[in-house]
């Protein structure tokens, strides 16, 4: 399968777009990885060209989340502990997003996984966030795209949680708008431990915005989504497809309470979260039931996708209407983590439909 080859035309998607679920460390250009790896003499499993890097990292056959996350172990050493590389990745992501008509995106990453401060490295998690912010500021200036950071806790790494909370509390002025919890190759179990759960409760008290990876992988299914909403006070859900199987809770949280779901269609099939049967994809039901969802790429480094290739899949394969795809942009604007005044501006831009 290919995420980007499903239709040549992108004209019908020529409206302002918002992406809420993008892993910044999963959005590194293959060409940048190749160039930096060469310079640093890091072996990317023998890759001798950008094409080789692509072949090595991209998943184009339905697999599982562990396989997708294993790719991060191969390429993260190329950018971690390197402020200039992180700034560059942030800047280039703004350029890539502007090319496909994204006007605002929230990029998530674990500041801890992008440095080795615990091993005495000179870059700290705070330095990581500041480097990325510098890239976003330059990107915003040069490409007119607004970008903000969501800081991830990592499943199984409970000891990062309190520092993530401190950083999210103190670094709002360098573009931090919220927190998340994601997985990594060492585990993507959605039953998050007490430090992470309590940290999310405290974040809610402090008014820090919250999203949680739930209902994507593992054996917890819809339970992890309900837990994220009820116990972790999550305002949005990363993925969340599995809630659809649980009629009562789906009706309660997705249909009635209108919790926002950050859907990533291509990723959902590649990670095995959803079976490869596009017309039966949960998004079709979500459209019919008026669920509050938006559409994102998740990890372009691993899926070779863009928001436009995702919209194409949603329309041509899953069967969503163009109206629904536009509504997804408004849903995203209304559910984004920007402060109220900036959010109003973004909502207005989406309503106007002009760049
Ligand atoms: O689809 C996903 N589900 C769970 N975790 C993910 C997914 N994509 C990426 N990451 C994880 O999130 C970390 C921070 O950005 C990444 O380093 C990766 O391990």
Question: What's the short version?
Answer:
47% of the residues lie in helices and 14% in strands. The chain has 355 residues and is α/β, with parallel strands linked by helices. The longest helix is centred in the middle third of the chain and has 19 residues, at 125-143.
Question: Overview of this structure, please?
Answer:
With 355 residues, the chain is an alpha/beta fold. It has a single domain (14-348), classed as Alpha-Beta Barrel (TIM Barrel). 47% of the residues lie in helices and 14% in strands. The chain is built from 15 helices and eight strands. The chain has helices spanning 30-40, 50-57, 65-79, 83-99, 125-143, 161-170, 194-206, 222-230, 247-256, 265-270, 282-288, 300-303, 307-318, 322-335, 340-352; strands at 17-23, 102-109, 146-154, 176-182, 209-214, 236-239, 260-263, 293-295. An eight-stranded parallel beta sheet has the order 1-2-3-4-5-6-7-8. α4 runs parallel beside α5. The longest helix is centred in the middle third of the chain and has 19 residues, at 125-143. The radius of gyration is 19 Å and the shape is globular. The protein starts with 16 loop residues before the first strand and ends with a helix. The model has no long low-confidence stretch (mean pLDDT 96). The structure holds inosine. Inosine (NOS) binds next to α3 and β2.
């Amino acid at each position: 399968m290919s995420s980007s080859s499903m239709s040549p035309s992108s004209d019908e998607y020529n409206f302002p777009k918002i992406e809420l679920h993008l892993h910044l460390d999963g959005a590194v250009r293959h060409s940048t990885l190749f160039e930096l790896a060469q310079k640093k003499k890091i072996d990317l499993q023998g890759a001798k060209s950008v094409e080789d890097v692509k072949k090595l990292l991209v998943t184009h056959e339905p697999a599982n989340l562990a396989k997708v996350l294993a790719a991060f172990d191969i390429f993260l050493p190329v950018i971690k502990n390197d402020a200039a590389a992180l700034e560059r990745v942030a800047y280039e992501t703004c350029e890539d997003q502007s090319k496909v008509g994204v006007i605002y995106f929230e990029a998530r990453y674990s500041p801890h996984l992008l440095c080795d401060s615990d091993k005495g490295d000179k870059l700290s998690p705070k330095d990581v966030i500041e480097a990325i912010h510098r890239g976003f500021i330059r990107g915003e200036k040069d490409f007119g795209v607004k970008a903000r950071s969501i800081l991830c806790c990592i499943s199984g790494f409970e000891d990062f949680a309190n520092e993530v909370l401190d950083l999210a509390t103190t670094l709002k002025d360098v573009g931090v708008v919220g927190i998340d919890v994601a997985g990594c190759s060492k585990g993507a179990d959605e039953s998050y431990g007490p430090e992470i759960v309590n940290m999310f409760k405290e974040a809610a008290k402090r008014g820090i915005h919250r999203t949680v990876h739930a209902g994507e992988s593992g054996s917890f299914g819809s339970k992890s989504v309900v837990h994220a909403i009820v116990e972790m006070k999550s305002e949005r859900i990363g993925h969340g497809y599995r809630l659809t199987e649980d009629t009562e809770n789906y009706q309660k949280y997705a249909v009635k309470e209108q919790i926002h779901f950050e859907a990533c269609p291509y990723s959902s099939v590649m990670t095995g979260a959803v079976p490869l049967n596009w017309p039966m994809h949960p998004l079709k039901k979500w459209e019919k039931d008026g669920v509050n969802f938006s559409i994102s790429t998740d990890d372009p480094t691993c899926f070779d996708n863009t928001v436009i290739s995702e919209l194409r899949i949603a329309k041509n394969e899953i069967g969503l209407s163009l109206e629904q795809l536009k509504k997804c942009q408004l849903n995203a604007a209304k559910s984004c983590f920007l402060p109220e005044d900036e959010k109003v501006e973004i909502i207005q831009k989406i309503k106007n439909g002009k760049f």
